[in-house]
Amino acid sequence: MRSLNMVIKGKVHKFGDNVNTDEIIAARYLNATDPEELGCYCMETLDKDFSKKVSKGDIIVAGKNFGCGSSREHAPLAIKGAGISCVIAQSFARIFYRNCLNIGLPILEIEQTDKINTSDLLEIDLASGKIRDLSANENYQASPFPEFMRSIIDVGGLINWLKKMV
Amino acid sequence: MSHTIAEKILLNHTDKKDIRPGDFIWANVDFCLGNDITAPLAIEEFKRLGRKKVFDTDKIALIPDHFTPAKDMRAANAVVVLKEFAKEFKIKHYYEVGRVGIEHALLPELGLVGAGDLVIGADSHTCTYGALGAFASGMGSTDLGACFATGKVWLKVPESIKFVYNGKRNKWVGGKDLILHTIADIGVEGANYAVMEFCGEVIEKLPMDDRFPISNMAIEAGAKAGIIPPDEITFKYLKSTNWPRLKYAKNLFSDKDARYLKIKEYDCSKWEPAVACPHLPSNVKPVSALKKVRLDQVVIGSCTNGHIDDLRIAAKIIKGKYVHPGIRLIVIPATQKIYLQAIKEGLAEIFVKAGGVFSTPTCGPCLGGHMGILDKGEVALATTNRNFLGRMGHPESFVYLSNPAVAAASAIKGYISHPEEVK
Q1: CB of B366 closer than 8 Å to CB of B302
Q2: CB B121, CB B113: distance < 8 Å
Q3: Do A162 and B280 touch (CB under 8 A)?
Q4: What range does the domain containing B10 cover?
Q5: Secondary structure (3-state) at A8
Q6: CB of A105 within 8 A of CB of A73?
Q7: Which of A47, B166, B297, B305 could form a disulfide with B310 if both were Cys (CB 3.0 to 4.6 A apart)?
Q8: A121-125 and A130-133 as β-strands: parallel, antiparallel, unpaired?
Q9: Chain B: residue nearest A94 by CA?
Q10: Which B-chain residues 296-355 have CB contacts (< 8 A) with chain A?
Q11: Distance of alpha carbon B177 from the chain centroid
Q12: Residue B105 in 3-state DSSP?
């Protein structure tokens, strides 16, 4: 589990608007729960070689409403299992957003995802939300998380948060 | 302080004196549920907490409905995981094949969810219970696992958007069409993080089975919940399920001066049956605008449109006719009660004599699970809720969404058709 106090560096895999959870992990794989197994089929509907292209630590950058559709937590688990370290999007669908907080997959929202290209190298400081596009030499600032959500992110997810609360 | 119905329900489930949109609350849950896909993960998360008991053995439902009757060995194992957890923790509401139905049709039918409740489910279509006046919201397995232990959920109090449906509902236009037209208007993230509240003269006259699809598909606009404030039609339905908190339900409404993020008004008199084209539920066209879209499969069922009224309207159109030779018609009642009722009324016979299949309850093909998966290039028209790329099978297959009348007419004609085209 990751907390916010870290810096991520990775290569960009770019996607468009409204990437839904069926596309992130198709229902035919939902009888598995192991993140690594799910990771092998991540994004298969959109790019059948996606999992082979990902190096550990890479970053997904997408448009609006990323993760819309089903509540399947297998979707953020598949992304994690594929080796992706962070998802940046213009906006996230509600259930996917909270699933990421709850399982500790870092996500960030910025308006300017159009300016970031596939294969760009990004450096992300999760604590401050600062994103540096090292390939394009651009800087972006992600929207901060509300304090309550941050308390869940900081301990690595909901279950750890609950353990601390009791 | 004035409040929307959503705010009133949430306030009732906290120890706070007042709440406003944007506040974070740690709310008490009345009922929670998971299915054969999401509950195994929730159980893993619950076990990480090391609790010896669940918060309430009567307020949890484990519903194996997605891949059942078990489509393969791993699906069978998921059901066993649910069954053993139910046994170990004495969870009352676990249902085997033969008694199980699609969760969002089954729980209302059993009187387990209703007006004024706060319900969370590890399934995005949990919002269906909003049709009964509940604040019901889909979330992930970790939220469900945490709820098994605590009976609580963290929520950001959402803004509400009010949708007012005026005018007269045309023949062949159902609840499904109202929600498809609405999603077409606001888009698939038009209500992201917000509550959709549905009202107006058209809603007031709408039977319960036409209300379920409206709340059910609120999630397709990104909504957190989709609520129809309870009225006489709701009370009648709740009474039929022996709902214990009718008095409370009768006092649930949005205040006249409640604050909304937006108010949308529609004149339904202009609307005809709607069809959502691939690959988004917002890609909607009136059925008459579609020019002979050839089909391979028609599915009538799901948590959206697998209710008895849906089967009745489909059977009325199909009666005495034959399914087009090139088409597979798959009819799936949502629960055992609906299944039996359809047999008693002769609906099952109508579908089978027409050359269709009449299946036992399952989510099955809606999510590309089983019971009707599409091959490359195949095209389906379904009364389900999502037409995403690859949703019903091959990444290069196509799904259109409609109401049951359009689906039935199309099964006869072989292409997407208006019910009036079938005589």
Answers
A1: yes
A2: no
A3: no
A4: 5-266
A5: strand
A6: no
A7: B305
A8: antiparallel
A9: B193
A10: none
A11: 14
A12: helix
Give the amino acid at B35.
N
Q: Which 8-state DSSP code applies to residue B102?
A: -
CA gap B262, B132 in Å, rounded: 23
Interchain CB distance below 8 Å, A71 and B38: yes
| Residues B158, B92 share a domain | yes
Q: Which residues on neighbouring strands pair with residue A66, listed in sequence order?
A: A92
Tens-binned pLDDT, residue by residue, of chain B (423 aa): 899 999 999 999 999 999 999 999 999 999 999 999 999 999 999 999 999 999 999 999 999 999 999 999 999 999 999 999 999 999 999 999 999 999 999 999 999 999 999 999 999 999 999 999 999 999 999 999 999 999 999 999 999 999 999 999 999 999 999 999 999 999 999 999 999 999 999 999 999 999 999 999 999 999 999 999 999 999 999 999 999 999 999 999 999 999 999 999 999 999 999 999 999 999 999 999 999 999 999 999 999 999 999 999 999 999 999 999 999 999 999 999 999 999 999 999 999 999 999 999 999 999 999 999 999 999 999 999 999 999 999 999 999 999 999 999 999 999 999 999 997
d(CA A146, CA B76): 41
Q: What is the rounded CA–CA span in Å between residue B137 and residue A94?
A: 11
**B355 Cα distance to chain centroid:** 27
Check B189 against A148: CB less than 8 A apart: no
Show which of B266, B283, B310 is a domain's final residue.
Answer: B266
Pairing of strands A7-14, A121-125: antiparallel
Which residues, listed in sequence order, are joined to residue B301 by a DSSP beta bridge?
B332
Q: What's the CATH code of the domain at B279?
A: 3.30.499.10
Bridging pattern class, strands B31-35 and A130-133: unpaired
B252 and B280 housed in the same domain = no
